[in-house]
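Kindly inspect what follows.
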Amino acid sequence: MFESFLHGDHASAPTDFSVVGLAVLLSFLLGQLIAWVYMATHSGLSYSRAFVISLLLLPVLVAIVMMVLANSLVAAVGVMAVFAIVRFRNVVRDTLDTAHVLAAIVLGMACGLQKFSTAIFGGGVVAAIVGYAWLTSFGRRRPHDFLLQLQWSRPVAELPELTAFLDRHARRCVCAHRRKAVDGRATDLAYTLQLRDPDRADELLRELAAVPGASEITGIPAGDESEP
């Protein structure tokens, strides 16, 4: 019985697990490369950590699918039919949920086609990748860790002095919002900062309060910008 799990892939040719392992490893590394490129180049508010993790899972799942199908047209039609039924009956909005559904379908099909070894190996790999993403918080992106709001009563031409002050405390400083205050005599400003030392945020606020022209100062730690 145990031997059937270790050598249970019924196909026209025996399974070479050194090739299987190489295919899964290479697909994982290429998926991680694509995920890192996405994380580095994405801009806007639609960034999703779930989508990043999906970029890790999908290449591996597709590699396992191709090994399970093994040039079988019937199996290929079967996996597409099952996936279409699931998509028709359930609207899956999260790409990571879709990847989990695809994993369940592929592993179930591998068992049904008596490819027990590939099912066990593939299931372990998928579980390991999900665990790796969860333990390392892979895909989280935090370009700033502090939000600062204040009023600037001095002329706008003197804002470089404020920027120079903030640059001493922050590795990265971006003016996210600027408009005239209601009274028309001051300027409302909002900055996103990546602090050099997040534990010294209170010190930043105290020193900023002493800067001439700065008032109505508030600062809060920023959360992760991505969707969970």
